[in-house]
Amino acid sequence: MENPELTAYTWTIDDAGWGDSVLVESLRRTTEFFDSRGLSSTVFAVPKPWGDTMSPEWKEVLTAARDAGHDLQPLGLTHSDCYEFGPPAWPATSILPTLQSEFDEQSDEYLQRYTVDKLRRRVEEAIELFSKDYGVEPTVFRAPCGAVSKPMFSALREVGIGYHTGMFISGTGYEHGQENGVNVSQKWVDSIPYRPFRWYEGIVEVPILNEYTWHGSGERSEEFIELARRDLDRISEQSPVVVIMMHTHGIADDFEHTFRVIDAVAEHVGRKPGSLFATLGKLAASGALKEAATIEGPDILEV
Questions:
Q1: Rounded-to-integer distance, Cα 14 and Cα 17, Å
Q2: Quick check: 65 and 27 in contact, CB under 8 A?
Q3: For 17-33, how does the pLDDT look when each residue is reduced to its tens digit (9 = 90+)?
Q4: Confidence band, pLDDT 50/70/90 cuts, at residue 98
Q5: I want to staple 195 with a disulfide (CB 3.0 to 4.6 A). Which of 58, 140, 226, 239 is the partner?
Q6: Long-range pairs for 89-93 at CB < 8 Å and ≥24 separation?
Q7: Quick one: CA dihedral 93, 27, 185, 210, positive or negative?
């Protein structure tokens, strides 16, 4: 992506490798749908789900996705909880309000995890598993639940991974699941830049725009598609790289809605001059992510 006028859009799918055959089928159907549209996704897979060896059926569907041109990158190591690489973070704390209280009750135990040495060993194991299972050398990392810490960035730097993507520009796509109703009006955060930025240890953070296929969103499909269009219009004026998130379990909740979102986003992006779809792996390899990070990120992490 050498042309500075271009804007690259990336689909990412979380929690691959983690869950039962329903979720295996979710990834298979979604990557095949992307294939039918000439699109590729970045699949963030848990290398050692819940601390166990990944199942053969998961490895099979991930290998098929890789062979079809999809990008495989690690989502933590085990994703046994939402505190693997840092304390609980928004919007996960909004989706699951008990995350913070549970962390607080065992904070002494959890905080002992966050040393550079311990986190580096976890990232190294994830890299080793990706290399052994898929012949893939990871270049981008995503910590589960967006929970990060300063030592995590030091660990990424030490193992040679220069890119992380976990901070959210908006969590509006999740608000419909809260008890107080379903507000799908556009609302963005003001604590981070809306474009890739250089963060701790010089790691480039590539923020996530939003998620439009979370559980229950299909019940108001048109509203979430319209939210996606508004978000895309706004972010295209802010950033040359746009990341959209999906989860295997959210997709499985309503395939029809998910596929309508993919088509609607692809159509909307297609109307924007200089727009293209690309995986995070390809953007990292081309230097586009590094080139897009023209600003420094804020010092907002306490741990």
A1: 9
A2: yes
A3: 999 999 999 999 999 99
A4: very high
A5: 239
A6: 89/145, 89/146, 89/147, 89/148, 89/166, 90/146, 90/168, 90/171, 91/146, 91/168, 91/171, 91/174, 92/145, 92/146, 92/147
A7: positive
